[in-house]
Fold this protein.
Amino acid sequence: MVTSGVFCPGDHKAINEIEHFSACVLAGISYFCWQNGLNIHIGNMLSVRNPNLPTIALLSVAGNDDIEQDASKGVGRPDLAGLSLIEYQIMMLARAGIQQFLIEVENIDGSLIALADRCRLRKLTVDFVQTGADILHHIDVDDRIWVQSGQLYVQLALIETLLKSSENFIATIDGRDENRAFERIDINTRWAGVSVVGYDAIAMLRDLPEDWSIMSSLLRQALLAKVPFRPLSQQHVQNGTLTVLTGAQDFSELNRQILRRRVANRAGYVEVYVFGPILSLIVPLIWQSPAAVTATKFASAVIALAAVALGFGNFATAACVAALLSIAANALRLAVTDDPDGSDNVQSLSVITWALIILAMFSSVYVATSYNDNGLFAAFAVASLAYLADKMAITGWAKQVLHSPASLALLAIIGAATVGITAALQWLMVLQLSVLIIASMQRHAEGQESN
């Protein structure tokens, strides 16, 4: 007790017990108000504006009785594009710039530990939390935290847009029936599954009971503290950039959508009309096997190395066929993993693949001309024009030809089998220059018409 302003023995313990009891009472009041649709404000309003970009993400694999598929039981399953949902969420957020992840869990099993190890290899930090106090051990007072609900898929472009906000927010969508998979806030508003909050919001969960959901409790505290809403367009739900995955059918439909987007984004007639239908059939099968997914990351380089060996062995046509297969394997890798060019180890692997294909071309010409350098100029010209064209803003049919390594490899196969590899590369050089000239003339004529 405290008597006349003088502390008696045991006062500190008593005060701590009173503070803990008060925090539990406030949490109980918040929960009651949430359940009954009341909107009250207790304490100081949370800070809203913070110029620091979010660098930490709070995710969840805690079970939820409202969904058909318990996320905590599916951490190890390749449900989404060859990854578990939680790992896919982490990879998307990592590409957007977040490097530290806190995952709400009920129990830590082997699949979660394996997930943390894989992320560590990518230089990402993953920690598991079960209470609000656990979260406070991993964040600083200046941190802003990206909060994403457990079964939510968010497309990368939307993540990048939301992360640019300098204010904390609660992302929302309207309360129409077709949005019923999203958690309701009030009769007209639902939570879009994403929020950005500050340290003070997390601090309010310090004494949260262990069996309470961190995600739901954090949302309630943010609502009571008047963190502003950020309404999102219904179009995000309709086009699938924002989706709550409630069962196997949702995962299947999203996988088809992801695959269509990855295949359609590739340029080139051969890539779209030949590789595309084939990839649509085999990629879903590869996604079911983690070993097969790993193999696709190295297949293109291995086949390109075989092309080099065939080139030095004076098998020019076979070397061109191997080069085409290597390009197909690279397209398969991109469809399976969607690894962005310019991303650490994946980009170096892609560079190695293309370097080996160019080396195969040079070796084929050099050996075919009896170790004479007459054909090396054509090989250098074809490789240089392909590189320059890839850096140019080309549109229409010209892009489908010049931005298509598979088309050039296919023409090289036909040429090597008919007129020889040296003449084939010379004609390829003429084709590349002709397409560039015609495309430039068309662009110039269109410019004059618009003027």
About this structure: The radius of gyration is 29 Å. The first strand starts at residue 2 and ends at 3.
